[in-house]
Please model this.
Amino acid sequence: MNLTRRYLLVFATAATLTVPLAFAQKASPAGTAEVSLEGGTITINYSRPFMKGRKIMGGLVPYGHWWRTGADDATSLKTPVDLEIGGVKVPAGNYTLYSLPSETDWKLIINKQTGQWGTEYDEKQDLARVSLKKMALSSPIEEFTIEFVKKGSKIAELILEWENTKLSVPVRVIR
Model:
């Protein structure tokens, strides 16, 4: 077999093995939460894991340890305008969102490091940790969900829901 044919065979074999992996469906599908407030659209991109019969809060999501706030890639926040999240100023830019759960209260961690896998967390890159309001849900939410509920032209509520837990924090455009 000549050299050109050998290279072609190796390339074809590699392409056959890698193409299906590139199109494989993730167990945790991608999700996006967006809200248009005065000055632009704030966007959160995240992965949406399912309960699948597992204990989530205090189990899969352990209390007292940071959590990636989703699955797979780190959850990202992009804002074209300066915000106040839970009373803390967040300048326009790109961030990663983590959480610090506990039985009684949660913190939303706004981190300056971006583009990393969700399990890569550098506490030294934290911009802020803000308190989340925690409420019990009357019926379980199977798939982790992040959403914005617009409350006015400059303010929205950021909501995270999974299992029997609802977490929220106000988000406001500042100028």
